[in-house]
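We close this part of the discussion by returning to an individual protein. The amino acid sequence and the backbone structure tokens for this protein are reproduced below:
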Amino acid sequence: MESSAPSCWSCGASQDGGMTCAQCNALQPPRSDLNPFETLGFPVSVQLDEAELSAAHLRLTRSLHPDFFGNADPIEQAHSLAWSSRVNDAHRVLKNVMSRAGQVLAVHGRSIDTTEGGWRPSQAMLMEVFEINEGLEEIQRGSAGSTSQSVDEWDSTVQGWKDELMAGMVSHGESWETADSVEQQALLDALQEALARHAYVDNLRGRIERVKQTLAH
């Protein structure tokens, strides 16, 4: 049995899921299934214009500001707070390309658990990571084998890996626009792998940063 369309809390008119009632313009509660792209009014894509994203966020937060609802019904005041929270959360997620990529996967029913991407580092990368981890451990033990110069070099290597991932994200967004359904599934596979790679590299980068902070003191 199909569920009936939601009704406006103020005038009772049927709603289409928009932010305000088309009949009386009362602010409606945000849908529970609203994803971040829908919340800010953008297509589901890794490639978004960040200036437009910020402008949409600013426009919505201004329209939902408590000053506009100071004399409103308490129900509408509560809806404005719920929308403000949803808009801020959506902007926080979408302004970062990696978390944005995770949302693209989620919208398409893919796991965003980075341990499920099926990706494993290459042998060459594993060897470099092993060397970096060994050097970081030497520094933490106070051994003389590694220096701050070594840490800077490792940091540069890992940053290079991150830059490659970011370039791949841009390429993914461009390819998605012209891909057919079969190609899009392949792109989603690649996106899942990229997120797994990013989590792996980001974890190593975090360790390097912690050692750099120790050396600075």
